[in-house]
Structures are given as C-alpha cells and as structure tokens.
C-alpha cells in the first residue's frame, strides 16, 4: 500500500440512511474508530470491509457499540492486528468471514459465545487466527453447543 495518504470519503456521523441493510466499504481507509458511526445504523444486516475499507492496527468495540441486526460480517484485506470485541457487540451475527487478514493475531474469544453464530470462514489468515478458531470450537463443544462450522 506504500505511503498513500487518503482522507475518509465517507461522510461523518448520521450521513448514511438509517434504513440501510447492507454496506460495503472498499478502499476507503476509514479508521476503525469510525465504525462507531456505522454501528448506529439500526437495520444493518450485512457489513463488508474490503481492501482497506477500514484501516488501522486496532479495532476496539465498546460494550455500548452493538450491531443489533448484523448477521454477516466480512473483513477482506486489512492491516488490522488486534481486534477486541465480545458477544454483546454482535448479538445476531450468523456468519463471520475473514479473508487475507495477514496481520490479525486472533479472533476475539468471546465471538464463540454468540449463540446465533453458524460459521466462521478463514481464507489466507495467519496460523494464530486458525488456532484461535480451533480454541473457540473446542470451548463451544465443552459447553455442549452445536459445533461451529468453519472453512
């Protein structure tokens, strides 16, 4: 990516229609803190972050940042290294797809506590991410939950 210097091209808070159900951000280089604006979309079911839609090493979700309706989350090509989130942040998530997250160290452990989660898919991620998925699956099995599908 080099030393590209971009400014966010997405308008600030409240600029997106609240009726939005699906949002794809590609090469917008928004900082992860800007996700606080997107979490406010009450009907958002599908969120796709492609090719540095979001940019930055750390994404920390606060407990009050809740994607109430989000069912599908894709993160594809990012420099994200550390992701902090809990099941509270994604109460209805069904499918998580991580593609080419070369720097990501692990999936947040609490993601495994999302009772609606049906699958986590990994493509070209670090071995440590795959290991964290395995730990999540083992924890779910020990709690008597149906095995989480993965690929």
From TrEMBL:
<dbReference type="InterPro" id="IPR032675">
    <property type="entry name" value="LRR_dom_sf"/>
</dbReference>
<protein>
    <submittedName>
        <fullName>Uncharacterized protein</fullName>
    </submittedName>
</protein>
């Amino acid at each position: 990516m080099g030393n590209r210097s971009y400014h966010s091209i997405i308008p600030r808070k409240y600029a997106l229609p609240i009726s939005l159900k699906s949002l794809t951000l590609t090469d917008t280089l928004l900082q992860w803190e800007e996700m606080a604006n997107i979490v406010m979309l009450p009907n958002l079911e599908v969120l796709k972050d492609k090719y540095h839609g979001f940019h930055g090493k750390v994404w920390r979700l606060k407990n009050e940042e809740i994607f109430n309706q989000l069912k599908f989350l894709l993160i594809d090509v990012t420099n994200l290294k550390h992701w902090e989130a809990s099941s509270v942040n994604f109460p209805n998530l069904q499918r998580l797809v991580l593609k080419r997250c070369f720097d990501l160290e692990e999936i947040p452990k609490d993601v495994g506590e999302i009772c609606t989660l049906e699958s986590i898919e990994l493509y070209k991620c670090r071995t440590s991410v795959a290991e964290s998925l395995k730990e999540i699956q083992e924890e779910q099995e020990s709690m008597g939950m149906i095995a989480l599908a993965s690929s």
